[in-house]
Amino acid sequence: MTVVKLGGSLLAEADLRPLLEVLIEAARTRPLLVVPGGGPFADAVRAATERHDPGESAAHWMAIQAMDQLATMLAGLAPTARLATEPREVASVVAQGRLAILAPFAWLRAEDPLPHGWHVTSDSLSAWVARALGAERLVLLKSTDSVPSGVVDDYFFQALPAGLECWLLDGRDPEGVRQFLRGVRTRGTRLR
Q: Is 163 exposed, middle or buried (0-12, 13-18, 19+ CB in 10 A)?
């Protein structure tokens, strides 16, 4: 299994359809799960919670619900992909050779595995998902292919399982992502 974290910042930077087509193609030959970021939905949560401060736990769950919103949007853009809300659904979707897109709220709410706070984002959540599913690889698709400070959240390397291959790729380059998923490692930065 490869877990692909699709950064919410890509919504503002690129047309996601070509990237989703690449992921759908790759999912036909290998188990592939997309974990969405929160994007503009999480930005709205940040703004609302800064103004009204409902507490870290409320903000945490609101941000995860933002990820569900982006998952729903991605599934609308990729009609052959399927939403999944928990591990059995993920397994069912990938067994069909389809791209699974995780709407994580229900699973995370039941497990509550991560600290609550803005230091834990969808990056850490994707690392936790990769661990929970026994994934072999985690690929972070963001609007960068270099590793500036702050490219992942503060909790990410604590959530990342030992031995998991982890890469950062520029999600604005669908062809580069295609080549990477086919085993051509000419692009991207290995984080571990």
A: exposed
Confidence check: pLDDT of 177 > 80? yes
Report how far residue 91's alpha carbon sits from residue 68's, in angstroms, rounded to the nearest whole number.
Answer: 18
Structure tokens at 186: 């000419």
Edge-to-edge strand order for the sheet containing 165-170?
82-84, 100-102, 32-36, 2-6, 137-142, 165-170, 189-190
Per the DSSP assignment, residues forming a β-bridge with 189 are 168
**Residue 147, pLDDT above cutoff 60:** no
Measure the CA–CA gap between 29 and 85, rounded to whole angstroms: 22
Helix (H) or strand (E) holding 59: helix 56-77
pLDDT value at residue 144: 74
Q: How would you classify the pairing of strands 137-142 and 100-102?
A: unpaired
Give the residue with greater pLDDT, 150 vs 75: 75
- What residue ranges define each of the domains in the chain, with the CATH number in brackets? 2-190 (3.40.1160.10)
- Beta-strand pair 32-36/100-102: parallel
Mean pLDDT of the chain: 92
Residue 161's Cα: distance from chain center in Å? Answer: 16
